[in-house]
Give the backbone structure.
Amino acid sequence: MSSTNKSEQPVPLGKSQLRIGVYVTIDRPWLDHPFLRTRFLITSEKQLKDLMEMGAEGISWVPALSDVEPIPPPDEGVDPAAPKADDHKQMLVVARDIVADQQAEEAALNPAVLQSKRREEKARRQRLLVAAARREWERAGSMVKSVFSSMATTPRQAGEQLASVAASAVELLQSGEGMLQLMDKQQGEALQYHAINCMTMAALVGRELGLDETQLRDLSLGALAHDIGKVMVQPYILKLAERTAPEEKAYRAHCDAGVELARSSGSFSEAALAIIRDHHEALDGSGFPARRRGDAIGLMARIVGVVNRYDRLCGPESPDAPPMAPADALRKLWREERNSRFDEKVLSALVKVLGVYPPGTIVELSDGNVALVVSTSSNPMRPRVLVHNPDVLKIDAEPIALEDAPKELTIRKALKPTDLRPGVMLWLSPRERLSCFFTVTPKD
């Protein structure tokens, strides 16, 4: 259709008027729609379906850029006296035409183009999953921060809110395949995001070890609140790299204090309370507060003990203790603390959850590029990465799923920040304190 004498101004239209060949504009926030662009020609049945599911709000068409006119609205070009069955029949005809056009379009494409389209669609879905995960992570962080500050004064209400966060996380995790996703955060927000990190990793490890839904809820709640007793410890003590004997005693008291706070809320099972009590115990009896050893430490407390230690290596409380790179922290746990402090079965599950290159790891690829690992995948050797590209803004760069990339593109090695040129480090900007949540691919 020629664009001569046709308006270039967007014209609002209803979702029932959409069809292939209409050029649309979307006036809605980026996270409220699944498209990479806000102005495009509808060329596929999939685009049409996604647009119709969005509703009509904020959708207009541009006559000058469209190949066809929109479908007339119900009160135009339709006999009001005609039976509703005719309307349905017309829609079926339109639908058949759309499907036929889409099938013809795909049949005309060669395999390489089809594969490229599928990769683009998978990337689009992943972007939506990450956006959804970010919204849930931010909601949980805001709630946990508020709860930690009010636990001592309104324990019942605070406990209910913590239980709600943990239950929502387990419900989300149970809805599909969960992968660990790196999240950005502001500095100075350590306590609540450490709690969410531990809850996230503990839930993934627990699922890997075969815990049922009730156990996962107890595990997630205990992990989320494992450090709640620290609200009773003077803040300066938490930040000390070295403590005197009285300061260490005050620090270690956070386990028992946390149990009392959690118990007073009425929201914690005995299993969840045992996590708070025992998350600093060690298999060899060198832990605290009761020097329990071996089987005297429950499985869920062992899980939280491991993920707590990993996250503290990556983001220590003391500003005098430099954070370790995620891959180095995982290596330290496996080589130095396996079977002495931590259960090998639990550590093995954590390695499977984190992958060989955990989110937050800076890596060198086989093609010489430098990248930041942003998410795990089903292949522990081939995570999702954000490749350094100085020609684009980081916010506009699309992560690459190495599991879908050509086999020759691999990770050559993990890098330390000191290995990078300043410009590369600035572009990648990995956080000193890493935060993670899970993206969940829904079940079919």
Q: What stands out?
A: The chain has two domains: 11-76+85-108, 117-442. Residues 11-76+85-108 form one domain. Confidence is low (pLDDT under 50) at residues 76-89. The chain is about 45% helix and 10% strand.
